[in-house]
Amino acid sequence: MHSNLHSSDTTAERGEQLQMLFKQSMRRLAASVSVITCAADDQWHGLTATAVTSLCAEPASIVTCINASSSVLPALNASRHFYVNLLRSEHVAISNSFGGRLKGSERFTEGRWALGEEGVPYLEDAQANLFCQVEHTIAYGTHIVVIGRVKDVRFTEQVAPLIYQNGLYVGTTPLACSL
Ligand SMILES: Cc1cc2nc3c(=O)[nH]c(=O)nc-3n(C[C@H](O)[C@H](O)[C@H](O)COP(=O)(O)O)c2cc1C
Description:
The chain is of the alpha+beta class. It has helices at residues 11-26, 73-79, 92-101; strands spanning 31-32, 34-40, 43-49, 52-57, 60-67, 81-86, 113-115, 121-123, 128-140, 143-155, 163-165, 168-170. It has one domain (31-161): Pnp Oxidase, Chain A, CATH 2.30.110.10.
């Protein structure tokens, strides 16, 4: 069965209903989980994000969307450097900690963190680390769209991403018929 808007509703009701249906639709958008980290004034900051995508390879860049109220944004704007740590399927506890279970620098008590050149922490056993510089920020709705220029990368041979879909964490298994 498919859900969509009821034509008899008022404009306000349609607005509310659209938001609810949109959220339900987005639960079907499986997404790889990352932790975005930055540092300023000797303080480490980080949050869990699924809104991370490759933008282009020339120049190597990514885009991420961060809620405008997020505690990481002042540090990200001040230092202009941030790292994207692509989580592995075993990193559920890290995702939960950086997703709000823990606060501030307490979040870094979960996982093995090393220090990058810009003084920003990176997750040692992430699937990949993207070392980025802030290129552009665009305010849109409740979020800030951040375009990051990738300055360096690190990755492991094994590809085993942590995926978030329908409010749950899952892993990936290749389909027998792929390609
Ligand atoms: C799986 C998952 C994905 C998330 N994706 C995003 C995201 O893409 N952008 C965002 O701003 N917050 C996202 N969040 C929410 C933030 O991680 C969460 O609100 C966090 O507590 C923000 O940090 P702060 O409280 O220090 O501001 C996600 C949370 C989870 C658990």
